Amino acid sequence: MELMSAKNHDAQQVYALVQETIKAVYPKYYLKEIVDMFCEFHSLNNILKDIETGNTYILIENEEIIGTGTKNENHITRVYVLPGYQKKGYGTFIMKQLEEMIREKYDCVDIDASLPACRLYSKLGYQTVDHGIWECKNGVIQVYEIMKKQLIKKPLAQLIIRPYKPKDAETIISWIKDERALRKWSSDRYGAYPITAKDINYKYLKCNGDCEEPDNFYPITAVDANGPVGHLIMRYTDKAKTIIRLGFIIVDDSKRGMGYGKRMIQMAMRYAFDMLKAEKITLGVFDNNPSAYYCYKAAGFNEIPMKEDIILEILGEKWKCIELEANRE
What we know:
By secondary structure, this protein is α+β, with helices and mostly antiparallel strands.
């Protein structure tokens, strides 16, 4: 199960999913005029506009789009799950993923709630703060709930970064739950899944992280009071040693959404700028990893416009790599 950014070629499938769900569920709650209004509002054109602005996400399972959700700043909308997959936790999963993206910049989430979704949103901690009115055909009025949820900022534990130690490999391996997670973390830099702690230590300690220069590979581990919580590597990408590349970025999966990733990245940035004297820091992230993308954006990175897409063939799929950079102020 994976939530990823929707692309233009997904628009027709997203539209079909939304329309099928509305027509199957909403007639149980609303008059025909209101059902028709929802169908018209979630038109193919409106869905395509949200996809083009990067606001729409799709939930994939067994290579099928089974759900979707859209966010615009701190507003969540168009959260739908195919009827055959409802009441199985997929809607909750979509909502929590969108909330984590919003949490990077905002303290609250707003949502306009239809009757079929109100119960789910209430269970997730949303409260009704107002009501809106929509005039439909034939004088029919739809009244909907405007709901809000405060995003609790969890207290941040003390965090430090230190040089990687061989014993860290076992902990890092425990954070990689499946091959998809491995490839998001390391792309094609390792062979067959699963990998072992020995594989990581061999690459780091024997192969110098695949770097030719002897002093050009800096593996780092982020640690709190209980031990490692994150990991990344740094390396120069130019002979003048002015550009640092971050890679192999990973955070303890049980601690995601708590700010560790953003803080680890920012601490690594300070080290790269202040100690390694870098003028620029770069990194790459796959477009099917939106939570990491928004973490990097929140840490201070900006997306680099590319003349041509960087596409890798991974797990029989085409994964697009997004390049980001941060410059010394």
